[in-house]
Write a structure and sequence with these properties.
Elements lengths: L3 H4 L15 E2 L3 E9 L3 E8 L5 E8 L7 H11 L8 E6 L3 E7 L5 H7 L6 H20 L2 E2 L8 E3 L8 E3 L6 E2 L26 H5 L5 H17 L12 H13 L3 H4 L5 H12 L8 H14 L11 H42 L2 H8 L1
Antiparallel strand pairs: 1-2, 2-3, 3-4, 4-6, 5-6, 7-10, 8-9
Helix pairs in contact: 4-6, 4-10, 6-9
The site of magnesium ion (MG) has 4 residues, from loops.
């Protein structure tokens, strides 16, 4: 069994490359590191021509299995759509490859932590709706993602702050031929690609992944958000291999109704639906979204894009603004004091003989 961490093993430390302030592709300046993954690092940067913010995904040239060029091709093939980050540049610098893309906000994993690792049903349903739309878009373009998990969904920034984005296409794969539209063949001798915690039962069993597996992973995300953790988290084993075996065993013998016993039955239905799909089946995304939307309405929720973290972030922004105002006040009073001192010094030195003043300075 292998996963992304293993596939990109021999992780290269980028910290000794002194990347801050570097100019990339002739116009993007790297500012600070904002994330790291199995591949390398993500930097926040600035487009020096427009002043716009960007994110720069960096992969060292010497990694065993480079993925960034492939990932940039996938972004290009899928193109510009709602919830797909814009990509501005891919290139190779001296010792690393870079993908410059739209700067996004926090990931669902980070927001989950911000909300003390519990999301309300309203938040879960609003997220589920957008996650389903993103999957449908990726699948429509002939790709499966193969690493669906909370870390790979990010909220937008500014006016896009209620929009969910899907990222990280390093493990994505074409499941239909672009011209003949023929589905890839069934196989069951594959290594696991993706993350064991969210992988489908079949993917862990070594079956070639298809649309159904992205959907099953999505339903584990929903389970994770609504229960606070997945039943197979925190299992102890002697090594990774044994841990994966234990996760798989627990996943496949899971009693779905029991797991969701205090939660809306739609969540259990969703997982059962994903598990019952056949290898080449096209998921009925509209049916699944409808399932969530009807539940949403029956619970009398408003589709107002107010997520559990919205008030927390508002509070944080208010604090930031207050802090900024305080800083400005301090700066202004310092400037006033400086001005007064200069004026006093000026009027004193005007009264004093010039030669004397110069002498003092020396
Ligand atoms: N465009 C972006 N804007 C802001 N943060 C990002 C962006 N892309 C990635 N990140 C952050 O970096 C992390 C790792 O990026 P990702 O592309 O998922 O790499 P990996 O392949 O290692 O998982 C993400 O989980 C996220 O926190
Ligand atoms: Mg990722």
């Amino acid at each position: 069994m292998a996963c992304k961490q293993a596939a990109t093993s021999g992780r290269v430390n980028l910290s000794n490359l002194a990347l801050e302030n570097r100019l990339i592709g002739g116009k993007y300046r790297l500012l600070k590191s904002i994330g790291s993954g199995s591949f390398g690092e993500i930097y926040q940067g600035i487009d020096t021509q427009t002043g716009g913010d960007v994110a720069v995904k960096i992969e060292a040239c010497e990694v065993k299995y480079p993925l960034l060029a492939y990932e940039s091709k996938i972004y290009e093939a899928i193109g510009s759509h709602l919830g797909m980050p814009a990509c501005y540049h891919y290139g190779s610098e001296k010792r690393f490859n870079v993908l410059v893309m739209e700067l996004l906000g926090l990931s669902l994993e980070e927001l989950f932590n911000l909300c003390k690792r519990k999301f309300s049903i309203k938040t879960v349903l609003m997220l589920g709706d957008q996650m389903l739309m993103r999957l449908e878009c990726v699948h429509q373009h002939g790709f499966i993602h193969r690493d669906i998990k909370p870390d790979n969904f990010l909220m937008g920034l500014g006016r896009h702050c209620s929009k969910l984005y899907i990222i990280d296409f390093g493990l994505a794969k074409r499941y239909v031929h672009p011209k003949t539209h023929e589905h890839i063949p069934y196989r069951d001798d594959r290594n696991l690609t993706g993350t064991a915690r969210y992988a489908s039962v079949n993917a862990q069993r070594g079956v070639e992944q298809a649309r159904r597996d992205d959907l099953e992973s999505l339903s584990y995300c929903i389970m994770y958000f609504s229960l606070g953790k997945l039943p197979w988290q925190g299992l102890v084993a002697q090594n990774k291999q044994q841990k994966y075996e234990k996760i798989w065993e627990m996943k496949r013998s899971l009693c779905i109704d029991e797991a969701f016993k205090d939660k809306p039955m739609e969540f259990a239905l969703f997982l059962k639906y994903a598990r019952n799909l056949r290898f080449t089946d096209r998921p009925d995304y509209v049916y699944l979204r409808q399932l969530f939307r009807v539940l949403f309405r029956s619970l009398n929720h408003q589709y107002d894009h107010v997520f559990d973290w919205t008030p927390l972030q508002k509070e944080q922004r208010k604090k930031d603004r207050e802090r900024e105002r305080e800083r400005v006040r301090q700066r202004e009073s310092e400037m006033k004091i400086n001005r007064r001192q200069r004026l006093e010094f000026g009027s004193r030195s005007a009264r004093e003989p010039i030669g004397d003043g110069l002498k003092h300075k020396r």
